[in-house]
Structure formats: C-alpha cells, structure tokens
Amino acid sequence: xxxxxxxxxxxxxxxxxxxxxxxxxxxxxxxxxxxxxxxxxxxxxxxxxxxxxxxxxxxxxxxxxxxxxxxxxxxxxxxxxxxxxxxxxxxxxxxxxxxxxxxxxxxxxxxxxxxxxxxxxxxxxxxxxxxxxxxxxxxxxxxxxxxxxxxxxxxxxxxxxxxxxxxxxxxxxxxxxxxxxxxxxxxxxxxxxxxxxxxxxxxxxxxxxxxxxxxxxxxxxxxxxxxxxxxxxxxxxxxxxxxxxxxxxxxxxxxxxxxxxxxxxxxxxxxxxxxxxxxxxxxxxxxxxxxxxxxxxxxxxxxxxxxxxxxxxxxxxxxxxxxxxxxxxxxxx
Amino acid sequence: xxxxxxxxxxxxxxxxxxxxxxxxxxxxxxxxxxxxxxxxxxxxxxxxxxxxxxxxxxxxxxxxxxxxxxxxxxxxxxxxxxxxxxxxxxxxxxxxxxxxxxxxxxxxxxxxxxxxxxxxxxxxxxxxxxxxxxxxxxxxxxxxxxxxxxxxxxxxxxxxxxxxxxxxxxxxxxxxxxxxxxxxxxxxxxxxxxxxxxxxxxxxxxxxxxxxxxxxxxxxxxxxxxxxxxxxxxxxxxxxxxxxxxxxxxxxxxxxxxxxxxxxxxxxxxxxxxxxxxxxxxxxxxxx
Lengths: 333, 288
Prior knowledge:
The complex is a heterodimer of chains A (333) and B (288). In chain A, a hairpin with a 3-residue loop joins β14 and β15. In chain A, α2 packs across α3 and α2 packs parallel to α4 (136-148). Chain A has 333 residues and is an alpha+beta fold. A six-stranded mixed sheet of chain A has the order 6-7-8-3-9-10, with helices on both faces. Chain A has a five-stranded antiparallel sheet with strand order 13-17-14-15-16, with no helix packed on it. Helix content of chain A is 27%, strand content 32%. Chain A has two domains: 4-230, 3-Layer(aba) Sandwich (Rossmann fold), CATH 3.40.50.300; 237-332, CATH 2.40.50.140. With 288 residues, chain B is mainly alpha-helical. Chain B has helices at 3-36, 54-61, 65-95, 101-109, 116-127, 134-141, 149-152, 154-179, 183-191, 196-223, 228-233, 243-253, 257-287; strands spanning 38-41, 46-50. In chain B, α1 crosses α13, α5 (116-127) packs across α8 and α10 (196-223) runs antiparallel to α13. Chain B: Residues 69-278 form the ABC transmembrane type-1 domain.
C-alpha cells in the first residue's frame, strides 16, 4: 500500500518560502510525475516526502498515518537519486543488499531477493563488479535494484534519467514503465522533461515556484491546460500562444493553438513565409513568420511536405481546438 | 624547433638539477656505506683500516639494538593510531557548518607550523613539568598527585608530543577527503536505514581509506626519523632510545663513526622495507 497525502505542506529555507501551502493526494499504485522548470521546487517536494528535508508546517500522510516527523528509513519509501548514489567500494551485490542488511533481513531471504532483482533488471552477470566498472545505464539499474529489494510502499525517482544519453533514456523510460506495470507500486517521479512526464505518468503534477499549476492525466493536461504556463509547458513543440487582434476575435486575451492543430490550406486567416523548416522524416516543423501576428507560428505538417525557407503558406487553425485564456492567463471554457 | 630538439634541450637544462640532487643523495649514502666497513674512531686514532662486517655484527648484537627497534615501532605505531583516530573524528567535526569555521580550521592546523624542537621544549617546560607545568596544576586542582611525565611515562609523553605535532597534518588531509564525499551517498544510506554509526563504518570510513593510507605512508617516513623531540626531552633515557637516536649516540657520544654508519645502513633497509610494504598497500587502494 502506498497512498501519500500532503496536507497544507510548506517549506521555507530561512526567509525564502520554497513551497507555499500545498495539498496533493497520490493514490496507491499510481505513477505520479512532478514536472516543472528547474528551480520550481519539484525536487524539494520529493525530498520532503522522502524525509530528507523537514517540512516547515502541514502534514505528510502515508497510508493515512502521519509521517511528518518519521525518519526517512522508517517511512517505507525507496529513492533513486540523480547521481545514483551507489556505494563505490561495494560490489553490485553488496550495494543491493545494503538496505536489507541494515534492516536485518536473514541471509537466505537477502540472496533470494537479490537474485530476483538481478534477474528482473538484467544484472545477474554484473553482481560481483563494482559500480565504477559499470556503464551509466547499468548503474541506474543497480540503483533501482537497491530500491526494489526493500519492497517499499512507494518509489521516489529524482531525475533518474538526466545523466543518460538520449537513446538509453528512451530505453530506461520503458523499463521503468514496465517495472511499474509489474510491481503496481506507487511511484513518484521528478523530471524537468515534459516528454518523460507525458509518456510515463498516470498523473502529472505541474509545478511552478512551489505552486501546483495543474494536476491531471497527461491527456487532460494536453487537452485542457488550466492556464498559460501549463499550456506552454506541456506538448512538444510548444503551443503557439497568440495575443492581440487574433485573440480578441475569439473573445480572449490570449489564444493557444497547438502546432499539430494548424492545417496548411489554400484559404485561412494567416498567410506567411516559412522561416525554418525542420524535417524530421516523420514530421516537419515549420516556423512561419510575417503572418500579420506578432508571434512566429509553429506548424506541424506531415513528413513528406516539401516546404523550405522562403516559401509562402496559408494557415488555418482548427477552430474547435483553439484554447482561450483571459487577462490573468486562466483558461476560458 | 622540432620536438626532438626541444626534448634534448630540455634534458640539457634539467641536467644540472638532476646531477645536484643525485650528488646530494648519493654522496652521503656512499660515505655511509664506506664508513660502515671501516674502523673509524675520530678521537681515538681516526681511520684504523677495514673492519669487514664487524660493525654490522656489533651493532645488531649490542644489548641496545632490539629495545631501540621496539621503541621505534611503538613510537611510530602509537603516533599513527592517535593521529588517525583523532584526525578522522576532528575532520568530521570540522566539516560541520559552524560559526568561525575559517579561524577554527587555521587554529587546528597551527601546531604543524611549530618547529619540533620548540614544541618539545614547550611541552616539556610548560605542560609536563611536575611542579610548574599546566598538567601538574590540573592534576592538583582535582586533588591528584602530579605525574612526572618525562621520567615515569617517558615514551607515552613523547608519543603525546609528536602526535600533537602531526594531528593537524592528518586532520587536514582527512578533512579534504571528508569534504569530497558525495552527499547523495549519505542520503541514500540514510534512506536505506543506516544509523549514524553504520553510515560512519559503511560509507564514510571506506571513503576515507585512501586518504588514511596516504597519511600513514607520509607520516611513517617522517616519524621513523624523530630526533629533536627525544633529544630535548629525555635525551634517549628511560627507554626512549629509538633506532635513529641510537645511531646518533654511537656516532657522536661514543665517537664511533663506523658503528653508527652500520646502524644507518640498517635504518635505510628498515625504512625501505616499510616503504615498499606501504607503497603496495597504497597502490592497491589507488587502483580501485
């Protein structure tokens, strides 16, 4: 079981208020991703849940029990750190065994769990090596192995993929996803990469300056961003946010149109010149300017279109998929 | 200029320094070796011809030899244990954030800058004097009988003095090692349920092992040649005669250069055995 509830949690370092009062519930078995730009307090929030930082006020409840003042080891949570934090002088086997050794698990049980974890993570051949002899991806798996054997109520991941190269990151993303499907344990995952958030999460928590901007499933956030910040943060390439006359025609201060919701047609409201055309093979991203709008418009077209720098295009946003925001940046229904 | 030319030019320019250093080392070494095979008594007839291996045999069979080896080992070992145990604890303490950290660190390092002769004299006269010493006053304050440090526990006293001098060195090296420990490792072990004591033994101490071997190596080399501290306190009496001090007595007090030189050769061999032994440990530790 691993239901985690934060009630009016605050954190301040001296005079600096990092987390204003914050409420959040993470259901048992959920894969919850904290996402936000760097310095938004997402790592601090994770460390508060882990118990590595003390909360200034409020309460953290794990399965209904107040854990606000429980030491980290007693909260039943396992954490995977950004730097993996493996113990360099111990073999992989001893690294994985360490939490069990500290908990006084009998040797036989330790061996059984190590074997199971090593099998699940493809580490069986590396058990007697030291962390220094492993690649980044393998170290990452050892760190996960060390977390698994504790059979925790929830896993906490602190930007675990940020030290890996792009190809490995995609692979590890899937492995962590599969691990979650198999273990059905609560996972809290911190990242600044919205792609990781979108692909892995059951529930995304978008944070800015310690405030929760929106909580919801990836598609909820994609379809109905609550404000301009979420609208700009979720989705790649970024949503086009357009102000001025074009927005006022729709009765809003700002309108947002995703690049994939703009068609290149013969007749449309915006006609402009292609600045940069990024051909990815599967898609083409066109950056169109001189459309009469102040902003450059990004358009996602199919991979086979042949537009290049300087071409004239006419754009038509799909009217039913335009997001409207008011003066305060909040969504207008 | 081509690489080849600049290389030979570099060699030419380095040559004077190399020759000077080699000479500096080799001349005394060869002279020691030479004298160790001579009967050389400066005040009793000078060089009296070859002595074969007589000097070597006499030095080892003298009743003072084995006790002096033992004293040397106890002194070096004692200082190493004290400086490393206290050094580890002090470095952990100094790593804690506190007010006036910079000043405290400089003060901790200060004893290292005091010359051995001076520090030994200060300890002898200001602390360990049985009537006027600070320690005697302290003992009296608590109603105890003052200890005559340098005559009743002379070896312990000298170990205390030398440890005081070398503790800053050990602390300094260990402090840099403590500071290089990854904080996430400590946090990870905290989450893994390790108590502070377990964290110390499983995480911090293994991390310090490399720094500790380096401290042991460097200190051993310097501690084998302790002289001033013995000379100004006990003068080699009361079982404080180390190998180094025995050689000094043979050469200058007995005026037997040949016998002393043979002792010097033994000391070289002993130091090299220790050095090889320690280098292998360090090498093994550095490989990891």
